[in-house]
Automatic annotation (TrEMBL):
Transmembrane segments: none annotated. Pfam families: TPD1_C. GO terms for biological process: cell fate determination. InterPro entries: TPD1. Residues 1-22 form the signal peptide. This is Beta-1,3-N-Acetylglucosaminyltransferase family protein. Keywords: Signal. It comes from Liquidambar formosana.
Amino acid sequence: MAAILQSLLVIVLLSLIGQGMCQNCSTGDLLVQQNQTGTNVQSKPEFKVTVLNECPCLQANVKLGCDGFQTVEPIDPLALAKSGNGCLLINGSSMGPFSQVSFTYAWDTQFPFTPISSDINCN
């Protein structure tokens, strides 16, 4: 009987710890990295953007600030699509914990994408 109670206590504690970790997640856990690919598109350098979810929870409806963003290279709208004042990543689908999404664009200079909102789901 004591072993069962101890096992239940461990399970409850682990679930509480897991929930506590997710409560601290925010758009600050979305890391945006960019690098030049070395390719030129219409004489403009191409950049690869990678967005990494560093949160142990799902993040859906990830929106990046992209006011003024321009590219001469078409971007798959399922990867990044203009949505109001921002750009919606992967059509609003969830990014898994510690997963990443990438897309490329080409313009004269690197654009400063910043995460502005997301829906965090720790279930």
